[in-house]
Amino acid sequence: MPKHTDKEIELAAERLERWADSLDSATAEFEKISDLRAVATADDAVRADEARLREAVALARAHGRS
Description:
Layout: H1 6-22, H2 34-62
């Protein structure tokens, strides 16, 4: 499975948000998507952790650590 760039994921999320905003809650039929929201939340956490790791490694290297 090809890995998507952060920009591709961000653009897809923006498209989804625009689509969701266009729905009329009075007439739309909704499906529970809590499982998908959990995936998105976990993905956000992983990306944040990866960024913190990169930052910590850069700082350690700046202090001469290997």
